[in-house]
Amino acid sequence: MGHTSRCLALADELRERECCTVTFAMRGGETAGAAAIRGAGYAMNEIVADPSADYGDELMTVASSRRAAAIVVDVRDALSRASLDATRGRGHRIVSIDDATDRRLAADLAFYPPVPQVGEMNWHGFTGHCYAGWEWVLLKREFVSEGFTTPELNDSSPAIDVLITMGGSDPAGMTEFALAALDLLPAPLALSVVVGPAFARADALSRGLGSSHHAVRLIRAPASLAPLMRASRLAVASFGVSAYELAACGVPAVHLCLTDDHARSSSAFDKEGAATTAGVFGRISARELADPIRRLMSRAGERGVMARRASQLMDGRGAERVAALVAAAI
């Protein structure tokens, strides 16, 4: 769902600001991601090749039938560099989004968030242009910041003490783990738990909600996340698109990471003082997640500094910038 969300953000800018026609090519015609694409009014070609196979020929056929000037690639599968080289050779511009594989070497334009891994990649043979930084992160327009207005620094009080958001599906069960960690904090808190459209752990989550000694509100697949984020003192989030959305909203956050790679990416927030990396899920205890939450909840000044720094780093206009460069390239 994170990939779908950021591609929709870019598609909206390409369609509405740059007057481009946008088509999605993706797997899973009945998935929550596909429903979001259709709901936003975009045409979609379903990729039917086996997920373990290189589907370059199928993608080439789609691109040719749509007379596509550019192909934006945001995948984690078996699509090969050779396939993209061939597609590029046919005159299609290739735009790569946050790709650590050698597929990126076939791109005309490659975009990355400000993660340390980018500088460690081997770019030998790359003839395109690479852009990496906070200003290139793809977020929906609702996260565009017009200035720092986080409740910590004005007279209003946020309605949510802690917002828990673990992505669109959370198959690993990080939401329940975060609830267990928060139950180690003694003071009754107002918690809001957001679950995405692909969430499928209702029974396990119900048990966690029922046993919590905090006041918990469950929010299923909200139409907009930005108002909830901006109404929160603090967030506990899985590292991913949500981490950047929270930063754009000026919300202090504690990141729970699914992989070592996510933890390294989250370290960019830690380095800038914009969020705290708790560790990798499955390797830390509930108490180790609870400790940074407890510290930040008890230190309003530290939350305020973190919120201000996050807001300074993320203005939410990355999709607008990427769309402008893609449109210029075609």
Strand count: 12
The CATH topology of the largest domain corresponds to Rossmann fold
Assembly form of the protein: single chain
Look at the structure and give the mean pLDDT.
93
CATH level-1 class of the largest domain: Alpha Beta
If you had to describe this structure to a student in words, what would you say it looks like?
With 330 residues, this protein is of the alpha/beta class. The chain has 2 domains: 2-141 and 316-329, Rossmann fold (3-Layer(aba) Sandwich); 145-313, 3-Layer(aba) Sandwich (Rossmann fold), CATH 3.40.50. The chain is 39% helix and 18% strand. The chain contains 13 helices and 12 strands. The chain has helices at residues 2-16, 32-39, 56-65, 81-89, 117-120, 174-182, 202-211, 226-230, 241-248, 260-272, 286-297, 300-313, 318-329, and strands spanning 23-26, 43-46, 70-73, 93-97, 109-112, 129-132, 160-165, 190-195, 215-220, 232-238, 253-257, 276-280. Strands 9-8-7-10-11-12 form a 6-stranded parallel beta sheet, with helices on both faces. A 4-stranded parallel beta sheet has the order 3-4-5-6, sandwiched between helices. Strand 8 (190-195), helix 7 (202-211) and strand 9 form a beta-alpha-beta unit. Helix 1 packs across helix 13 (318-329) and helix 6 crosses helix 11. The longest helix is centred in the N-terminal third of the chain and has 15 residues, at 2-16. 44% of the residues are buried.
